[in-house]
Amino acid sequence: MRYIRYAFLAALAIVLVIVALANRASVTLNTLPEGLAGFPGLGWLGQSIELPLYIVIFGGIVVGLLVGFVWEWLREHKHRAEAASKQAEVKKLERELKRTQAERDKDKDEVLALLDQAS
């Protein structure tokens, strides 16, 4: 199974290198459209930068993955909080059970107490 994963990663790396080599041309990346950048007060937002196309493509993929991961992490917060509270409740009940067993077995012989705990 490990070799299949390595083969898949190698094939993915080859595909990414081929895409990068095929898209080396520079493109202008603008933060605002030309018409909107001319409005008063929005000029400072109108930035542009020249980048190779493959960086724009891969950057878009990375940003999309990061947004998806953060969105999913925020969406699952309630499930993680519920699991943490259930785990804390289990630990509390385990401590209470040990304390109750210790009180129950304090007058018993040690051998009998050990036998009760084993069963």
TrEMBL record:
UniProt cross-references to InterPro entries, sorted A to Z: LapA_dom
TM ranges: 51-71
Metal-binding as UniProt keyword: no
Protein's organism: Thalassococcus lentus
Official protein name in the record: LapA family protein
Residue ranges occupied by any Lipopolysaccharide assembly protein A domain in the UniProt entry: 44-97
UniProt keyword list: Cell membrane, Coiled coil, Membrane, Transmembrane, Transmembrane helix
Coiled coil: 74-117
